[in-house]
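User: For my dataset I need records formatted as: sequence, then C-alpha cells, nothing else. Please produce one.
Assistant:
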Amino acid sequence: MGIHSSKDKVCSLSKAVSRIEDGSIIAVGGNLSAREPMAIIREMIRQGKCNMHSIGGAHGVDIDLLCAGGVLRRVQNSYVGFEADFGLAPNYRRMVQQKKVIPKDTDCVAVLMQLRASVYGLPFMPMKLVTGTNILDLHPEYIVMTCPYTGEKLSLLPAVKPDWAIIHAHKSDPKGNIKLHPPYFADLLAIEASQNSIVSVEEIVSEEEMDKIGATVPYYEVTAVVELPFGAHPTSCYPDYTYDRKHLAEYVKLANRGEDVFRKEYLEKYVFGVKSHDEYLELVGGHDALEELTKWNQGTEKWCELLGRNL
C-alpha cells in the first residue's frame, strides 16, 4: 500500500488516468453489473493504455470493454460475463480466442487471499486446496504443501500487489476520505493492497459532511479523486441508481456482431466519439433517462419496467 498524504486529491478524469502506466497491474472495483468504474475505463481506452493485467473477482462489461479497447493483455478474474441475463462476454471471449488476451482463470477466494497477503505484508497466503478444477495447472506459481499442524493439503498463493486500484464510490471529501456503501466486494482490499488508487465518486462533499456520514476508506490510501456523477453507468451504483439494462442489451448485441461492428458502432460512438463524461451522459439519454434509473426502488412495477426482459 502506498501512502498518499496530499490534502487535495481532486483532479480531472484525464489527469488522473494519465498517471496509470502501460503494463500496470490494475485491480478493478465493483462486481458483475454493480459499481464498476466505467468512466475511468472509457478514459483509459481513449488514452490508448495497453498491455495491462487485471485482477478481480466476477466482473462483466468493465473487463469486456477493456479487452475490446486493447487495454488488457492478461485477465486474472474469476468470471467475465453478463450472468444469465445476456450470457458470456463476447469481446473477452473473442480476444482470448485470437490470443490477444491471456486468461489467468482463478476463483474469488484466491483473489481475496492474494490481495490479503499484500495487505498483511506477507509473501503468500495459504488457503484450502482447490480441487475438482484445473486451477492448479493454470497457476504453476501456486504451491501445494502439507499443513504441519493438521496434515491437510493446502495451496500457497503468492501475494498480488496491484500498481493501481480503480474504484467507483459514492462520496469523497477533497482530502480523499471515501464513503462507500456496501456491498464492498473486493474494493476495500484492492485499495489497501495497491500502490496507488483512483476513485471516481458520485459527489464530492465537505470534510465536515464526511465526518458526519463516516468514511469507509481513509484519505492516505487514495491517490486521486474524480467527481463523476453516474460514473458507473451502465452498471449500477446502489442505492443511487440501478444498471441500465437497455444500454447493456445494445452493448452485447453489437459485441456479438463482431470486432469491426463493435468498434464502429460502440467504441467510436460511446468512447472515442465523446470528449468528456458529460458528453457521454448526454449521449446515453441525458438527465431524463438517467433520472429514471434512480427510481428503481419505487415499487415492483417500476423495477420491472426498468429491468424486465421485454427489451
